[in-house]
Description:
Layout: E1 7-11, H1 14-30, H2 32-41, E2 42-46, H3 47-55, E3 73-76, H4 81-84, H5 92-99, E4 106-110, H6 116-129, E5 141-142, E6 145-148, E7 165-170, H7 176-181, E8 186-190, H8 194-207, E9 213-216, H9 224-236, E10 243-246, E11 261-266, H10 271-278, E12 290-295, H11 299-320, H12 324-333, H13 338-344, E13 345-350, E14 353-358, H14 360-383, H15 387-396, E15 405-406, H16 408-424, E16 429-430, H17 431-438, H18 441-450, H19 463-472, E17 477-485, E18 488-495
Parallel strand pairs: 1-2, 1-3, 3-4, 7-12, 7-15, 8-10, 8-11, 9-10, 11-12
Antiparallel strand pairs: 4-6, 5-6, 13-14, 16-18, 17-18
Helix pairs in contact: 1-2, 1-9, 11-13, 11-14, 16-18
Amino acid sequence: MRPLYSLLYVVNRTALARQITRMRNEYAEQHPLEASYLLSHVHVVTYQKIEAMLSCNAILDYPYNIACYRGGYICLDEFHYVWHDSLFNPKTLLSYDFFTQATSATRFFMSASLTSDMISALENSLMENCRIGDYTSQCRSKGNLLFTSKVYKEINSITPDYSYLNLEAFSTIEELPELLKTTSGKTIVFVSSIKEGNKLISQLQESLPELKCDFLCSEYRNNTDMAETMSTIVNRDTFDCDILVTTTVIDNGINLRNNAIKNIVILTYNKVDLEQCLSRRRVDKDDEIINLFLCRRSVKNFTDLKQQYERIWRCYETMSCLSPFSCLQKYFEDHDNSRFYDKIGLYRSFPYGQVFQINHLSFEYLCYELQSINEIISRFSSEGKNAFLDIQRSWLSPAGTLLPYSDHTLASTTEQFISMLNDISNQEMASQELTNWLKKDDVKKCIRQLSPDKIYASKPVTKEHLKKLLETGDFGFTLKETPINPKKTVYTIIKS
């Protein structure tokens, strides 16, 4: 039998579901008179669990069927998930269709990361699916929360305040071990993929053997150490190691409340991930300062990402032009693109037959991402190597301003470069000798990072690059060219 005034709380991460369930249970223990009601009326579930049941055509009963919540409440937390995760989990369409269908329950669609296009699409779906009277035309977006119900209620906008951040910039992931040597307190590093995380954790363990560095990803259920780390996060709102490298497995909703966590490194590519990862560390004190390390990234990072997304786009165009039968046939026979088809739709088997169902949310999010990537690439062309750094700063800054940042990477690189210039200053070098010096890995790295112009990795560092850098930078050196004869010139680095 359906209990009255029940609450179904839906989230997008298993760890978050466990943390909220823990909070419910702790409250029940502290309030024994309400415990029975809470435990039988408040239910926490993940979108993915609902999707798993729907994808195998299971009949949903209480507490998972929204039809059981007449007069009750359904809280859809982190609802941006249905778009944001759709490119690697096409089953998000099942959640979207299920939770936007007609119901007399009061539904809360909550997220700090819904774009205006997402909100419009959601409102249109609710208007189409709900009976007259179930949805009010006055419903609207209010900052971090979209509220829909029979009764309209105004929700005050919440403007994030990131003034507690101390921004620090770096250029490549390889620089992180050296950077983190100078920090104090615990550090959490959010990486964009398991591959990136495995590479970084190896570098950290090699460079910082005195510190305990752990890795956490979606495979934690099959790894004892990872499972223990996840349990600590869920049950104690912290982690025990000095440096935790994690994928976005804990990017949504999870609370980290340990004041010893002083440093956050975010290696993601978009605003949603940046906001969600940053928000994991809860700031409870007005005078607390958190060091946020942001990576510049290079234009190549985004051109590579664009190529991946364009290939998914082409697969979508192919599938959208085919009949349902041809679409299914293509899915099974085109092995070269099978992993891309799995990003835009899902294979489903029904009693009446099999289908390949395209996820329109994947296409909508793909369009959004490609537009963002094209804008970022364009900014690199017009603004140079700091383009993405400035874009990230704009995401965190009040309108019309940019939060200041420290560039310890360039400072240390400058010191290293000056030291190398000192080592060869006042020495006459033939053209080939200077060229050989410019081919040294540490010299090339410094000049590429400090150069006012972008020097692509496929191009050599030349004498012209060095000359321009010394002329435009404040290094205290100049490059002197002395012709010996029409065919020979010697070069000397002179200290000003």
